[in-house]
Amino acid sequence: MADKGIPKRVKFLFGGSAGMLATCFVQPLDVVKNRLQLSGEGGAPRLYNSSFDAIRAIHVKEGLNGLFAGLSAGLLRQATYTTTRLGIYTSLLERVRARFVSLLF
Hints:
By secondary structure, the chain is an all-alpha fold.
């Protein structure tokens, strides 16, 4: 019996899940980065002295949810873009390998 490998829908699911999980870990760092970049813009005083100060201040003022602001948009992007990109990539990679590996060996 020939092994057909992982079904395409599972590849798409794994790709999207990986992207969404990565977004959940990176989102707080992205929020801090954006806040630091905008702090002091236009002649306003700087709000944060360091990344750790920004994390503390955001947590105190907005709670833990403040560090995950914008997460829904990031997850939506990953659910659509990354799912499609990684799913298509793995499918195409298998086709190329199947075609060209047989030519090499």
